[in-house]
Amino acid sequence: MSHYPQSLLTLIKNLSKLPGIGEKTATRLSMHILKASKKEAFDLAASIQIVKEKVRFCPGCFGLTDQELCNICQDSKRNSNQLCVVEQTDDMISIEKSNAYSGLYHVLHGVLSPMNGIGPDEIKMNELFARINKSGISEVIVATSTSVEGEATASYIFQELQQKNNITITRIASGVPIGGDLKFIDQLTLKRAMERRYSFS
Amino acid sequence: MSHYPQSLLTLIKNLSKLPGIGEKTATRLSMHILKASKKEAFDLAASIQIVKEKVRFCPGCFGLTDQELCNICQDSKRNSNQLCVVEQTDDMISIEKSNAYSGLYHVLHGVLSPMNGIGPDEIKMNELFARINKSGISEVIVATSTSVEGEATASYIFQELQQKNNITITRIASGVPIGGDLKFIDQLTLKRAMERRYSFS
To answer: Is pTM, for the whole model, over 0.90?
Structure first.
């Protein structure tokens, strides 16, 4: 490695810190950057700096934004009576891509995990309850993942909110994925799919 | 994609331009940069800019350097009578890693390829001959690749230099790679290995 100029070595080292990028890939990327136009390289460098300077959590939903409020919180056409609770910003984006939901979001930035010392204060849980108390939300859709922690977090939210009148608390359905072959589906999922079976209507 | 903030989208777009980085990987890298410390992200951005500003061709060997001359051309301990001709800077680094050579290099930055309009003027060929004429080089080792163009380039260098007295022109050996299983070696390589067989000494 010492055969490269020092500044190229620094770039390779910094690129290697990215997830899934080893030394070989970092070297390949560095050589590309070296051969690329000055504009392309400087645009890349600038966009990294701008992202770190501009992108922050939306004070409404704790999703990502580079404005005062994120596009979704700003959008007056969305149904402000519905609130979908997700673990991470990625989950919010996955639901958005499905086009199945037009309400607002709340990103917890984690799940309850007492084993790892993560309680309600470590994630945006108190912010969730404060928001529900303040606004006219009539349905809370809990879309945390179906992992053990995700389910526990969903139960916690349900328990905390169930005394409240005029709020419906729902959980996203779990079962066999569309296009899923039954023989490849795990037993727990199949059990859940049988339990939550519904009548043709 | 429109669910991400604009500055994040710009970063994803710029990262996607790197070789082997698709939109999904670019998104994952962007999310990592977003979560990484400000120092880590700014160091990465700065190292991209520094590489573009500082790294250039060494005026001696046309390898990469961020100084006046590259480390190898600067090194007075190296054998300045030997000159190894390679296609690309990567080849030079591969040979350096092998620790099998202690002379100087000359990077052609390409191979002769008349089909693609690449003649001696398009690569650092004239610079090679000028350098050999000026300096006290006694051996030129042609280490271009064993592709058709690499072999043709090697022949060209041999023809141009063969009139010169007191210069030995050599070509790196080709044959069966060490650890290579004969049944996986192509016929041309095997033919070459048979032709260039040598006596045990």
So the answer is: no
User: Rounded to whole angstroms, how far apart are CA atoms A81 and A135?
Assistant: 8
Question: Token pair of B130, please?
Answer: 């000028």
> What residue spans in chain A does CATH classification 3.40.1360.10 cover?
78-180+188-192
Asked whether this complex has an ipTM greater than 0.85, the answer is: no
Enter the CATH code of domain B64-173: 3.40.1360.10
Instruction: Return residue ranges of chain A for CATH 1.10.8.420.
Output: 1-40
CA distances from B31 to A64, A104, B34, B193 (A): 10, 22, 5, 51
Supply the angle between the helices A23-35 and A6-16 in degrees, to the nearest 10. Answer: 130
Chain B residues with CB under 8 Å of A93 CB are 3-4
Q: In this structure, which topology does domain A78-180+188-192 adopt according to CATH?
A: Dna Topoisomerase Vi A Subunit; Chain: A, domain 2 (3.40.1360)
Q: Does domain A1-40 have CATH number 3.30.360.10?
A: no
Distance CA B34, CA B119 (A): 47
Name every chain A residue with its beta carbon within 8 A of the beta carbon of B46. Answer: 45
Specify whether the CB–CB gap between B140 and B161 falls below 8 A.
yes
Q: In this complex, which of B17, B31, B47 lies closest to A14 when CB atoms are compared?
A: B47
Q: What are phi and psi of B79, to 5 degrees?
A: -75, 105
Q: What is the DSSP string of B58-119?
A: -TTTS-EESSSS-HHHH-TTSEEEEEEEESSHHHHHHHHHHT---EEEEE-SS--BGGGTB-
Per-residue pLDDT tens over the stretch B125-167? 999 999 998 888 999 999 999 899 999 999 999 999 988 888 8
